[in-house]
User: Fold this.
Amino acid sequence: MHIAIPFCSSIAAPSFYQDFIEGFEAAAAALGHSSERVVFAQLDRLEQDELDRFFRWSRQARCDLVLDVCCWGYGLSRTRLWNSDGSVGATIFDSLGARYCALLYDQPYFQPLAGLETDGLVVGCPDQNHAELIRRIYPQVRMRATAFVPPATRLENNCSFAPWSEKWPGILYVGNLAPLAPARFWQDVPHRDAYDAVADTALAHPDRPLHLCAFAALHHLGVELPAAELVELLRSLEYWMRQQLRHRVVTEVARSGIPMRIYGEGWDSIGLPSNAEVHAQTDYRGFMKIIGSARLALDVSTYLGGANDRVFNFAVNRTAFFTNAHAWLRGAFGSESGAYFYSLRNLAGLGARIAEVLAHPAELELRAERARETALAGHLWTHRLQAVLEAAF
Assistant:
């Protein structure tokens, strides 16, 4: 099988984007498949030389599957051939008979999924709640199949080379905070009452996916928004909730007095206590080095029915972690690994729980090692590519 991977060369590196694509390329090789990148520079358009190169490629290419990370190759997906009678023909990828896998790796309303044009669309979701959500907000998108394809990790991301005794014995958090974002910034939007109602419902039920909170709140109000306005509401409230939850969790843990290191922008402006050291944000490679040096990390996630990439990279680095995303991860890691779970509805005792875990370093080391074993056994990019192939063919 030959796999084409759209690649936007202007995305700043190193980032998750290059890491995920390199992971898929290595996974394809490990499974006996070939792959190549189809390179373009801008997300919103193809330059003429890129179009010419793409057309030349299509005349001699074999392509069975397209792996489009974040749907950022949507411009390529819309490029069509001309029929002999001068009419517009099929898209290039459809003309090659390829299945097109759109790998979201964010909430669906943040990705240009609706901009894709293909008859062979398979959507890879990082959250088990996404398939239903896509049908609600993008009813025009015709999907051949969906697949649960959360992020993964790879051995190259392991930067945990020091012995356990030398790993930092506090808790780590990596992520930015927009200090003004917790304020409700939608005073001037239409349907402000709807935004407020969804915000109130989401805060009251933080362990419930945002879109379900939105549907419930809008139904209670008797408001039915057009799909485009619903997407805009979800985008705004998702951004707001991410900031709300990060602020609440990090400040609660910091107040407990345990040693804490925070890497990211914005935290130095909110007056954290002295036990919380604030450091500048880092790039993706630096992120691996930081987590590799810690025993325990904190995850605050809105992928409640799936996972982000952090947890698997924590695990491969022998770094245990606390996360609120328990719906799928609890079964994926089990009860005796280095995955610890907390509820956003009960943060008052979180600092004490973390302190108790850190107070037993030998047990924590064993559990962190089990987390690494779990990641290597079932959460590498080869496992994710296998899931895509099973759904697509």
Observations:
- The two ends are 11 Å apart (CA to CA).
- The longest helix spans residues 227-255.
- The chain has two domains: 2-149, 155-186+192-379.
- The chain is about 40% helix and 15% strand.
